[in-house]
Amino acid sequence: MNDVPPGWELRPSGLHRELTFADFAEAFAFMTEVAAIAEELGHHPDWSNSWNRVTIDLRTHDADQVTDLDHALATRIGELLPVR
Fold first, then answer.
1. Domain map of the chain by residue range?
2. Across the strands, what pairs with 61?
């Protein structure tokens, strides 16, 4: 799969995105929404949070590459974000 979802960067480690929110509460609320989607898809991100910043990396570890599942999760995550 060669297309990179809008807002994402393809790195050797997988799909990568860094987001900045107004504050910790907004960042954590976003992560809570992503967690629900990840559970629904049965596919979980590697991610971190530091105050108002969230960093997300997506890669299907079993396949050792970026797969359709990573693209699906990236697309669903993008749908949570306001157009910037």
1. 14-80
2. none
Integer Cα distance of 83 and 35 in angstroms: 21
Residue 1's pLDDT band, with cuts at 50, 70 and 90, is low
Bridge partners of residue 8, in order along the sequence: none
Report the CATH fold assignment for 14-80. Gyrase A; domain 2 (3.30.1360)
Cβ neighbours, 10 Å, residue 41: 13
**Are 45 and 58 in contact, with CB atoms under 8 Å apart?**
yes
Give every strand in the sheet of 46-50, ordered side by side: 9-11, 14-20, 53-58, 46-50
Amino acid at 34: V
- Predicted confidence (pLDDT) per residue in 28-72, tens digit: 999 999 999 999 999 999 999 999 999 999 999 889 899 999 999
Strands 9-11 and 14-20 turn out to be antiparallel
- What pLDDT is recorded for position 82? 77
